[in-house]
Amino acid sequence: LKEKIVGLRSHIEALEGAGLDEVIQQKVREVELANDKLQHHEREVTVLSLLLTTLRSAETEAKERYLSPVLKRVHPYLQLLFPGAEITIDENLHIVGVVRENGYIESFEHLSMGTQEQIAVLIRLAFAEMLVEQGHPATVVLDDALVFSDDRRMDHMFDVLNIVGQQVQIIVFTCREQLFEGIGGRQLSLKTASGEELVSA
After folding, report:
1. 65 phi, psi to nearest 5 deg
2. Which of 51, 70, 136, 157 is the most buried (most CB within 10 A)?
3. pLDDT band, very low/low/confident/very high, at 19 (cuts 50, 70, 90)
């Protein structure tokens, strides 16, 4: 054991001569630098997290300010078709889903074709009303819309079209003339012209 201790002491002395203290000091300095970098990155993370939170809050506020008038305007029409329901729209003005009366959120893509069609028409009508109120001309063109609607929903949609039609020009193209007889308004139809009339035109 004594010989082993002497050998280890000699080895330690040799390492000290090779600059062991300097190596330890260098490692201590590296740890200090690493801690400085860590604190810098932690501060940066805190700043970026605060920035992200602020931007998200501003985005939500801007979205609500911009979209709330649309949602508010479409609300009474929506209640005629889907009592107790609300719709959600994303920042790109895409309809995301419908919140049912019981709080259940249903994705817009999972709704029936008729329901999707009716909600899309209501949104267009709401935007048109907003434009008219702001002094801009607006016309809503429905090209064979509401083809998937059942009779009850169709009657409600006709009510909505008549209400909105008092302020907004609505043009409905359809090949189902009999179905749209109850919508009111001025009905126009296309007729085949003679060859002479086509030439003169």
Report:
1. -65, -35
2. 157
3. low
